Structure formats: structure tokens, C-alpha cells
Amino acid sequence: MIKSGIEIVKRNGISYLYKNSRKLRYKPWLGDLFSFLYDSIMTKSVFPKKFEASIEKHKQFLKDELSGIHEKSVLELATGSGNISEILPGDNIYSGIDISEGLLKIAYNKFIKADFKNFELFLCGAEELPFQDQLFDICICNLSLNFFSNLTTVLKELKRVLKNQGTFICSIPVPERNQKQSVIRGNLYSENELKNIFETNGFYFTSYDFRNGALLYFKAITKE
Asked: Where are the domains of the chain?
């Protein structure tokens, strides 16, 4: 499962990465001190004020898309506090990555509470994934793609670890749907820009006919 050159040390449910005997370290966007506030901030501030969107609609979209997925190998980029554990069926093999140790600790408890049988959480970034080639059937990324500093590098890694015709399911704020011009952090791309970037990097891109404030929902399938 883990590619050559990477060593994994697992402590308290979280897998830490070592390369050349040195632990890989990451700097969370807001710092781990605020991890316990993450869910509250998303529910009370980010969704209604930044995205002008409904978190209930967001969760329903995910349920509609993911509830029928069973016995698949699933990767999530930016696991966050692990809310996908409440939606993704527990018979899947789940791997989640995040650069926040604090959020991963919260996520671990949620996956245990959801009685997920086969899951692993990794403290790492999306620009250099520790996994072997063509390992995953599906990858999920919610509300985080705009925070990756080098999207092209992320997509090359994503295409590497997804199986042929593997599916990437994503939600992301886009500027053309940000009607009140709210300040949204990260690198914002338009739908057309995202389509071009994904198709240039070996994916078929399709947006969902689903509206929820400033958010775009789309899927991308790897080209053979």
C-alpha cells in the first residue's frame, strides 16, 4: 500500500510519514489550536456567510453520491474532522490525509464511533502522497482543493494513485458563484479553469447540475 522510500509510524490512530529517517512535517492553515472549533466554524460561519450555502444540502449531495459505494478503496484529500464517516458506508477501505494533526485526532474518534472497520488516517499533504500507484477506486475532496498550493502537482499524484477510470468527487467554491463577493481564502478557480486544468492533466471533467451557493460540485474520471 505504501510506496517505496516512505516509512510509516502509527501512533494513537494516526500514521506519520518518515523519509530518509526524517519525520515529514506540515503547517496547518489555521494551526491545530483551533481544531476543536472546526465543525462549529464551518456550520455557523463558512457555509452561511462565506459560501451562502446550505450545509444540509451539501450533506445530502454527499449522501446521494456516496451511499451506494461499497467495498471500494477510497481516498479522501483533506479529511478534516472526519465528517465523511457519517456518510460513506463502513464496508469501504478508507484512507484519509490531512496536514492537521488536531483534526485527524477528531476524525479518528468519529470513524471509531461510526464503527468503520477498515480505515487509516495519514498526516501528510496532497502534493506528495505516500501510496502505491493505482491503489484507489475513488477519491473525495470537499471544500479544500483551493488550499493546495500546486494544483498541477496534486493532480499528477491523484492520477498516479487512482486506478484506470478512477473517480474524483469534489466540491469547491468558485468565483462566478460568489454573488456577494465574500472573502474566500485559497486559490479560487472558475469552473472553466478547473475543467481545463483537469483535462490537461489526464481527466474527464463533468460538473454536477446542483446549486448550493458559491459551491461547484464536479467529478473527474481518469483517462486511460
From this structure: 27-222
